[in-house]
Every structure is written in C-alpha cells, then in structure tokens.
UniProtKB/TrEMBL annotation:
Top-level taxon of origin: Bacteria
Transmembrane stretches, start-end: none
Entry protein name: Excisionase
Classification via Pfam families: HTH_17 (PF12728)
Residue intervals of the Helix-turn-helix domain: 73-121
Gene Ontology MF terms: DNA binding
Protein species of origin: Promicromonospora soli
InterPro entries tied to this protein: HTH_17, SinI_DNA-bd
Length: 149
C-alpha cells in the first residue's frame, strides 16, 4: 500500500491477497484486541472494529481509503457539506428546529452528532418511503420494481 499523504492509502496489487484474507477475517469479527510483544493486551472498541472492517474491505476491493478527522462542533457550512445541501438549506433546517444548534456569538454552531443523527433519520424515512412505493406498485400489479427490504 502507498500513502499519498498522511491520511490516504491506495492499495497495491502485491497486497491484494493479504487484504482479501484480512477482509474475510474481519467480516466475522465483532470484538478484537491488540496484543503487543510483551503480552500486554488492549481491547479495540466495536466502532473501531467496524471502521477497520470497512477500510480493509474497500482496500481489498481496490479502492483508496482516506481517513479524515472532524471537529465535534461544526460551522453551518461544514454541516451543510456533510449533508450535501446548501448552507441556506441547512439554516432553514436549523430555524425549523430539525437540527439543534447553539449560537454563542454571531455564528451558529452545530454538533457533529446532531448532524449525523439527522442524516440517519432522513435516510430511514427515505427507505420507508421507497418501500411503501414498491409495496404499492406490487399491489397495483406493476412489474420491474425491486423490493428494498
């Protein structure tokens, strides 16, 4: 693997077998720990195991992986970028109290956790709406639709 910068890794062909084997191993792992040479053990939290599983799976598929950090408090522009909407649209969501925010001075600030929770809720609603449409289409005898379940 080649590091393009401190956060992006591009898989190399020579690592394909090792990455595939590691991805297969991690697919069934729910808990893990690191064991160092002196025998000391450190548990790896479940969320980090999932992150590692996703990163290795993508690398094994030949895709580059970039790990970035995010502040826990976002500007409205950063929150809008994360949601894939314009800043004015995000401000409307804030004004409608759909996402909590603070305004310590003149600029609003949004917690990353609140933005991610809103995005998860939105995706869940979209999934339900798509399933309802598929169910209605099936009841109406329309073909060519794939169930989303």
């Amino acid at each position: 693997m080649t590091a393009l910068d401190s956060r992006t890794v591009v898989p190399e062909e020579r690592d394909a077998d090792a990455l595939t084997m590691l991805a297969d191993t991690l697919a069934s792992v729910s808990a893990a720990e690191i064991v160092v040479r002196d025998g000391a053990r450190a548990p790896i939290p479940g969320d980090l195991v999932e992150l590692l599983r996703d990163a290795v799976s993508n690398l094994a598929s030949g895709r580059a992986v970039t790990l970035t950090t995010r502040d826990s408090v976002l500007t409205t522009q950063a929150a809008a970028n994360l949601l894939g909407v314009s800043r004015p649209t995000l401000v409307r969501l804030l004004d409608q109290h759909l996402i909590p925010y603070t305004q310590p001075q003149t600029h609003r600030r949004v917690l990353l956790a609140d933005v991610l929770a809103y995005r998860a809720k939105l995706r869940e609603q979209q999934g339900r709406a798509l399933q309802e449409m598929a169910d209605e289409a099936q009841q109406d005898g329309l073909t060519g639709f794939v169930e989303t379940r």
